[in-house]
Known about the structure:
27% of the residues are buried. By secondary structure, this protein is α+β, with helices and mostly antiparallel strands. The strands form 3 sheets. A 3-stranded antiparallel β-sheet has the order 1-2-3, sandwiched between helices. It has a single domain, classed as 3-Layer(aba) Sandwich (Aminopeptidase), CATH 3.40.630. A hairpin with a 2-residue loop joins strand 6 and strand 7. It starts with a helix and ends with a strand. The protein has helices at residues 2-9, 51-67, 69-73, 95-101, 103-109, 122-130, and strands spanning 15-18, 29-39, 77-86, 114-119, 134-140, 145-146, 149-150, 158-165. The protein is built from 6 helices and 8 strands. Residues 2-156 form the N-acetyltransferase domain. This is N-acetyltransferase domain-containing protein.
Amino acid sequence: MQTLWRKTMESGASLVAILEGPGGPDHNIVGANITGVSHKKIKEMGQCHGKQFKGALRTALAITDEGDLFEKYGVENYLTAYGLSVHPDYHGLEIGYKLLESREYVCKELDLKMTGTVFTAAASQHLAKKAGFEVVVEREFKDYNVNGIVYFPNMPGKLMLMAKTYS
């Protein structure tokens, strides 16, 4: 996951919430949304290691293909993400929500008409709905079959491919 995040952050499109003022070296970054641009003509999984990570990535790619945001919204590219995280000391302060809202600025700078992401945690799904994202595809982890394999048969909760457009 770290390799994917590093590669994605190299695009310069990721969002970071930084604590202003003295916070100590462990608390300057209080949240991040690792975003990048997904292109219709470029589909690469890259090299990944670890059974669980491969399963998570294959699951996210499968639900993304199922929702086909390129076709649904008539776009060639869009802003996507591979992680929304807020330091536990800063939960409840709307940092995750503000990071999702900030995608609009990134989209405008990159001339993108929309953003879309597979949200896997109930908290991020709630924040995305609050920020105006619509659910495109919703599936239960325990039932979601990717090429004959259910990678997370014992996991509660849902996967949601969600999207938001900008004018």
